[in-house]
Amino acid sequence: MQITEIANEALKRSYRVVLPAADIAGQVDGRLQEMAKTASMPGFRPGKVPVNLLRRQYGQALFGEAVEKAVNESVGKTITDNQLKPALQPRIEVKKIEEGQDLEFEVIVELLPELGEIGFGDIELERLKVSVEDKQVDEAVERMAQGSGELKPVEPARAAQKGDTLNIDFTGFIDDVAFENGAAQAYDIELGSNSLIPGFEDQLIGAETGQDRDVKVTFPAEYGAAQLAGKDAVFKVKVNQISVRHPKPIDDELAKGAGFDTLEAMRKAVRERIEQDYNQLSRALVKRKLLDKLADKHKFDVPSGLVEAEFGSIWQQVEDAKKAGQKIEEDEEKLKGDYRDIANRRVRLGLLLAEVGRKNNIEVTPQEINQAVIREAQRYPGQEKQVFEFYGKNAEMRERLRAPIFEDKTIDFVLELAKVSDKAVSPDDLLKAAREGDEADKQAA
């Protein structure tokens, strides 16, 4: 076997490999001799079939097997001898393959970059912290009392106003033709909940029981049903009843209905849930800032194959959105360039975090994977068994659960080493920062 390096640039290496014809032929002869010991053909006893007949019938297939085995072994030797760290499966380009002649092919390998020492002590971050006030707990408990309250028709009768629940019948029309799945009977809608198409609920304010109204709306451009997206529609609506929800008293009985022993226990749980929500939001913000700093601090070449694979995944989402009727306003070539930059950043950060995890023995335990499976199952009430069976039989899908867990553990490790200072802010300030961060992500994407 002869292995010659023919290209060495950045993260790409190419090698020409020549395997003597005699080596391939020897492997084929060896397989034929093995087969001859047990092979049977009409007119011959088992184990007495001449090798030349076996060669005539199986020689081509055995030659293919021998070539595949020799190529795999040669690729492995090329990687081992040259101490390569492939980022992707090496690519093989066969240059000459003919029985009786030397086999020639090229091995093209994309390498993982050498990142060297990675330090985090000079990274400074600010973490926003919110203290939960009694007022927030009071408001949350009041919403629980309101949500579990009883609906009763308004007395005395009056026109509908925001906060009322209307029971309605409706049928939707586009160009005077009723469209599929656009009708319902005895449908309850709370005015102000924004649960229907924008503008629908507003046009029912002021309606009275028994009244018919035409509600004119425009479906959002990104509406899920492509045949309706961006279309003008008219809904013929009849108001059957106007009701108002009467909140339950805020007492131990309300708490027991929510699964708590006392009102005090329920308020404590509500406070803890609000704190958890704020902490998760704060962590998401500091994680975003950390990744931005890591991306700015660590500039290195990344394997183009990984970037193209990530870009392909992103662009597929764009194509799916277009098929669903979403309009893409930007120039497609510019958009592809922007998304390729995003793919490059994602790959670079992924390699960086992977290296940090490797060097610091950060691992995802089977218990953590199992907990992730349980969380997935909880998202599908009534189908938990099917979810457990799905992940139990599908190792690849379990591995997909591993990636975000590994990332979070690595992020936590880095945050421990970075200089993180806490800043007390109001809930509004935290939510504003989160919205600004989301908007920045949308612009980047």
Relevant terms:
48% helix; alpha+beta; single chain; five-stranded antiparallel beta sheet; 445 residues; Chitinase A, domain 3; elongated; Alpha-Beta Plaits
In short:
The protein is of the alpha+beta class. Helix content is 48%, strand content 21%. α3 (134-147) packs across α5 (263-297) and α7 (332-359) packs across α10.
Characterization of this structure:
The protein has helices spanning 21-36, 51-81, 134-147, 252-257, 263-297, 304-323, 332-359, 366-378, 384-393, 395-417, 427-444; strands at 2-9, 12-19, 91-96, 103-110, 124-129, 150-153, 165-174, 177-190, 212-218, 232-246, 419-424. By secondary structure, the protein is of the alpha+beta class. It folds into three domains: 2-110, Trigger factor ribosome-binding domain (Alpha-Beta Plaits), CATH 3.30.70; 150-246, Roll (Chitinase A, domain 3), CATH 3.10.50.40; 261-444, Trigger factor, C-terminal domain (Trigger factor, domain 2). Helix 3 (134-147) packs across helix 5 (263-297) and helix 7 (332-359) packs across helix 10. The two termini are 49 Å apart. The mean pLDDT is 90.
